[in-house]
Amino acid sequence: MTVQDRTSWTEPGDIEAAAAGVRSRAHGLEHPDDLDRLVEQFGDRKYVLLGEASHGTSEYYRWRSRLTARLIREKGFSFVAVEGDWTNCYELNRYVKGLPESPGTVRDALEAFDRWPTWLWANWEVLEFLDWLEIHNQSAAEEERIGVYGLDVYSLFESLVAVVDYLEDVDPDAAAEARAAYRCFEPYGDDAQEYARALRMVPETCEDEVVEILTRLREGGAADDHGRDDYFNAEQNALVAKNAEQYYREMVRGDVDSWNIRDRHMVETLDRLQNHHGADAKGIVWAHNTHVGDARATDMEARGRLNVGQLVREREGRADVALVGMGSHRGSVVAADSWGARLEEMTVPPAQEGSYEHVFERAGGDDCVLVTENLPDDSPLVRPRGHRAIGVVYHPAREAGNYVPTVLPDRYDAFVYLDETSALHPLAVHVDPGAVPDLYPWGF
User: Fold this and answer.
1) Which residues of the chain have pLDDT under 70?
2) Distinct helix (H) and strand (E) counts, the chain
3) Which InterPro entries did the record assign (predicted)?
4) For helices 156-170 and 86-97, angle between their N-to-C axes, nearest 10 degrees
């Protein structure tokens, strides 16, 4: 049976057998103490990747934050890397680590996330986790403080500006060269999408310019005396600019290469972060299930797509990597009906019959965690089923197109099921903190 085969998803006997498998192997999830098994089983791994079935669901953010806090406190994880732009996330890093020139408050840092969709990071769920992390870091030596970093590749122009600003301080001649090289982008008005659109008409790229500046920066890196973190930040911004230019250039062609460029960039950044933090460093990743879950266990592979979970597993081996997915049966979510549109709180309808989410609901509908390692080969939970994925653009009325054919134990090492979930709390909507419910009643 191939991953794409949907014929068995709705067979009643198969659904009931799979539900029985969940009842016999999953354990309940009500309190942070219920994360004990995940902490103990995965706490010694080099990377723990935590997924989510949408970017607009409060409970995904909350359980991910609780598990992250425990891995940091109890298992000595070194950094958190998220599906966000490097430049904006580095301001969060400055704040939680108490670095010079950090934002005055964490809300100041989060409100700098002005690229659509802003709600991914500018929300109360993230704000409260970052406040916890900043307090946690206060009792740690400077070199042991836990940072937050962005893995994504979208910040082309912001990263260009950051490189020039850095070079202004350390090497004015190199800064002048960088400004001259980046002048190639001036006709596009600091708009990466405009750069991509222009390539359809005039296929003259700025590829050589961004490669040249990255090379120049690396050649001069050994002479830098402005701090290891400052140089690392500048070099990463130069790398983002190079890879972002390639991403937007491939996006024009409309094929899968831009997706693969993006996920390869995320893994390259993850590798650089691990090296930057030392040989024994361990990292936590926050990203959508479509990046975290191994692409080879879905129909992504047949479409020529790879992802972060696959690449990290291939490089490190399964024993050093934990992939944790999340999903829910019904509820509400923050999303938009088209790219760039206003955010909305939308209803998430009950999961499609025969999907993994439907199976977990039939098993009793309780929030739970299923560790998928060591499931027997003949388990009905090993058969391909639909697994819901909600993007930042979402149309609840078109649910059939939101399911990724998946072999769950091959895609994840563990799956967190939350029966009914609620919408995220964006700062732009929930301005008054007094109106926001107590999101972490048990703390972290």
Assistant:
1) 1-10, 12, 200-204, 221-227, 254-256
2) 16, 11
3) Emycin_Estase, Hydrolase/PRTase-associated, UCP036794_erythomycin
4) 60
Which pLDDT does position 252 carry in this prediction?
A: 72
State residue 202's pLDDT score.
Answer: 57
**Residue 340, number of CB atoms within 10 A of its CB:** 10
Instruction: Provide the 8-state DSSP code for 429.
Output: T
CA separation for the pair 327, 229 (Å, rounded): 37
Q: What does the pLDDT read at residue 171?
A: 84
Q: How far is 123 from 127, CA to CA, in rounded Å? A: 6
417-440 b/e with 16+ CB inside 10 Å = b? bbbebbbbbbbeeeeeeeebeebe
Residues 6+ positions from 205 with CB-CB distance below 8 Å: 199, 245, 249
User: Is the pTM above the cut of 0.85?
Assistant: yes
Distance CA 249, CA 335 (A): 27
44: left (phi over 0), alpha (psi -120 to 50) or beta: alpha
Task: For the beta carbon of residue 16, count every other beta carbon within 10 angstroms.
Answer: 14
* The pLDDT value given to residue 222: 47
The C-alpha atoms of residue 400 and residue 342 are separated, in whole angstroms, by: 24
Q: Are residues 359 and 365 in contact, defined by beta-carbon separation less than 8 angstroms?
A: no
Instruction: Write out the H or E segment, with its range, that includes residue 27.
Output: strand 27-28
The total of other beta-carbon atoms located within 10 Å of residue 227's CB is: 12
The helix (H) or strand (E) run that includes residue 344 is: strand 344-348
Domains in the chain with CATH codes = 1-79+132-137+284-444 (3.40.1660.10)
Quick: pLDDT tens for 12-52: 678 999 999 999 999 999 999 999 999 999 999 999 999 99
Closest CA to 262 of 215, 229, 193, 311: 311
- Give every CB contact of residue 140 below 8 A, 6+ residues apart in sequence: 146
State pLDDT tens for residues 146-155.
999 999 999 9
Name, in order, each residue with C-beta under 8 angstroms of 41's C-beta and a sequence gap of 6 or more: 322, 371, 373, 414
* Contact assessment for residue 403 and residue 390, using Cβ atoms and an 8 Å cutoff: no
| Closest-CA residue to 296 (of 384, 403, 401, 414) | 384
Q: How far is CA 123 from CA 58, 109, 246, 346, in A?
A: 9, 11, 30, 17
**Residue 99 DSSP class:** -
Contact 82, 286 (CB under 8 A): yes
